[in-house]
Amino acid sequence: MKINLRWAKSSRWYGLAILGPLLSLLLFNPGAVLAANLSVTNAPLVAGQTVNFSGDGFTPNEALSAWTTDPNGWAAAVNSLTADGGGQISYTLDTLGHITGRWYLTLHGLSSGLEAITPFDLSAGRVTLPDPTSDSGPVPQGGLQVTPDSGYAGQVFQFSGSGFAVKEIIKLWETTPLGQAYALGEMYADDNGKLTYNYTGHGILAGIWAVTAHGMSSGLEKVGYLRLLTKTEGVANLQVSPDHGNNTTFFEVTGTNFFAYETYSYWFTAPDGMTYGGGRGVTANDGSLSFHCFIPDGKIGRWSIAVKGLTSNRQVIGFFNYDG
Question: Is 92 helix (H, G, I), strand (E, B) or coil?
Fold first, then answer.
């Protein structure tokens, strides 16, 4: 089950939405709030890697419920946990597929009522995508060679690289144009420390995709880039006008080739990789959409807006610049 906390972000009650449970504990059991602690032990963090948490102050051997809250305010339950005999807890969270931005992990003791919350920030980190516009511009050159470096979904792209340890395990993951990381599995380098990997482009999201190869014993990490091109059939299109503006600019977003009367959602990504929730709407009878928006934050630079049809699953991004 997911709970949308975005309503709280837009008002002064946001702090109470996060701190409410802690305040209630303080009223009925003074000092108990400070007894439970939670922290991240391996920051800074990159989307796609594991995050290690350490906590203490819970009742020995008590069951804990746990949930994360993403940068858009959505809360989702994670594994049920149990404190050890000393009231301590260690937990590892896999962030493959997580968006970049500020997240929260909350632990709640089911017998003590104690609750601990800690934030953690996920960045694009080692896989920093260039401007992922849909069909134009050069494909960035990375440490892995990609052949061909552009094509369509369903096409096979070959990634190759050298310098890894002989026969070492190499972990692979992909990063979408929106900055989400997904595991691709593992393979071995050959007798000369070389890697050859065949990757099939997938999805309908056009733009720059990245594949990262990380040597588990050597620590060597290389990235290769490819551009998925837009097919005119079955792929949505999006435009943002004007493409430059300031804090008084009303940006118009228009899209086509979604399903008729389907609900769509949209969100923003700032120049520093932070994401911001947008809203929802319904397409017209011809599958088009149009809405206006203000920039959600005053960060100067290149912004993107992503729109996803919730029935067609078609997703596309547009870009604009905030000049301050």
Answer: strand
Cα three-residue angle 146-151-155, rounded to 5 degrees: 85
pTM: 0.43
Each residue's pLDDT tens digit, 168-204: 999 998 888 777 778 888 999 999 999 999 998 876 6
Structural domain that includes position 106: 2-123
Which residues contact residue 130 at a Cβ distance below 8 angstroms, ignoring those fewer than 6 apart?
140, 208, 225
If DSSP codes are grouped into helix, strand and coil, which group holds residue 53?
A: strand
Domain holding 151: CATH number?
A: 2.60.40.230
Rounded to the nearest angstrom, the gap between the alpha carbon of residue 154 and the centroid of all alpha carbons in its chain is: 24
| Residue 258 near residue 179 (C-beta atoms within 8 A) | no
- Is 134 contained in some domain? no
Q: At 7, which CATH number?
A: 2.60.40.1930
The domain boundary, picked from 89, 123, 157, lies at: 123
Q: How many domains does the chain have?
A: 3
**pLDDT-based confidence at residue 43 (cuts at 50, 70, 90):** low
Count how many residues are written for the chain. 324
The secondary element (H helix, E strand) that includes residue 9 is helix 6-9
- Taking residues 286-290, report their average pLDDT: 89
Calculate the alpha carbon distances from 52 to 55, 76, 273, 285, 321 in Å: 10, 18, 22, 48, 36
> Whole-angstrom Cα distance, residue 199 to residue 210?
11
**pLDDT tens per residue across span 144-171:** 999 998 887 777 899 999 999 999 999 9
Residue for token digits 């493409």?
243
| Residue 131 maps to a domain | no
The reply to whether 306 falls in a domain is yes
Residue linked to tokens 């892995």? 144
Residue 137 belongs to a domain: no
